[in-house]
Design brief:
five-stranded antiparallel beta sheet, Peptide Deformylase, about 200 residues, single chain, alpha+beta, 4 helices
Length: about 200
C-alpha cells in the first residue's frame, strides 16, 4: 500500500527517531508499504519519519542509479544488486575526503542541491529479521545510506547547505510546506489549510 510522504515543515522530520524491537506492530507490513511508497515516488531511499513515524527504520534500493552511464560495469552491478532494510542503525565511522553529489529528497520535491559527504562509512544495523550486521559501504551506496540515516537523526539534506544556498531556497521550502507544489505522488503537507 502506498502511503503519503510527509512534506518539509512537518515536525516529525526534525525528531531523533526511537529504536524499535522485533515485536513492533505490523512491522513486515510496514516495511512492504514503505517499499511500495518509495517505488511509487521513484525514490532510492525512504525513512520512517518520511511517512510520519519517528522510528529508526529506513530502506535503500540503489538500482535506479545502475542505469547511469558514468559508472563502471562493476559499479553498475553493485548498484543494481543493492537493496537493504536498516533497523536501529548507527553509523560507527565516516571517512575519506568529502565529495559533492546532487541530492534530492521525496519530502522536499523539486529541490536539488550539491551536498558534501564522506565517501566511506561503517554502519551497524539490524535487518528485517533483527539479525545484527556491521558493514562498510562506499560511493553512492554509502551516500544514500547517509542521507536516509540523517532522517532518523532529524536532519535534512538542506541543513548541510551554505547559508547563502539556504536563503536561495527559502521560498521554495515555504511553498512545499504549504502544499503549493505539483507532484505525482501522495504527500501530506503540514501547513495546508483544511477545507471546512
Amino acid at each position: 500500500m502506498i502511503l503519503p510522504i510527509v512534506a518539509y515543515g512537518d515536525s516529525v522530520l526534525r525528531k531523533k527517531a526511537e529504536e524499535i524491537t522485533k515485536d513492533y506492530p505490523n512491522l513486515n507490513e510496514l516495511i512492504d508499504n514503505m517499499y511500495d511508497t518509495m517505488y511509487g515516488a521513484y525514490g532510492v531511499g525512504l525513512a520512517a519519519p518520511q511517512i510520519g513515524l519517528p522510528i529508526r527504520l529506513f530502506l535503500v534500493d540503489t538500482e535506479p542509479f545502475s542505469e547511469d552511464e558514468s559508472h563502471t560495469e562493476e559499479e553498475k552491478q553493485q548498484l543494481k544488486a543493492f537493496k537493504q532494510t536498516f533497523i536501529n542503525a548507527k553509523i560507527l565511522e565516516e571517512e575519506g575526503d568529502e565529495w559533492a553529489f546532487n541530492e534530492g529528497c521525496l519530502s522536499i520535491p523539486d529541490v536539488r542541491e550539491d551536498v558534501f559527504r564522506q565517501p566511506k562509512i561503517k554502519i551497524q544495523y539490524q535487518d528485517e529479521n533483527f539479525e545484527t550486521h556491521v558493514k562498510e559501504f562506499d560511493g553512492l551506496i554509502a551516500r544514500v545510506i547517509q542521507h536516509e540515516y540523517d532522517h532518523i537523526e532529524g536532519v535534512l539534506f538542506t541543513d548541510k547547505l551554505s547559508s547563502f544556498k539556504k536563503r536561495l531556497i527559502k521560498g521554495k521550502l515555504a511553498n512545499i510546506s504549504k502544499g503549493k507544489i505539483k507532484i505525482d505522488y501522495k504527500m501530506k503537507f503540514p501547513l495546508m489549510k483544511k477545507k471546512r
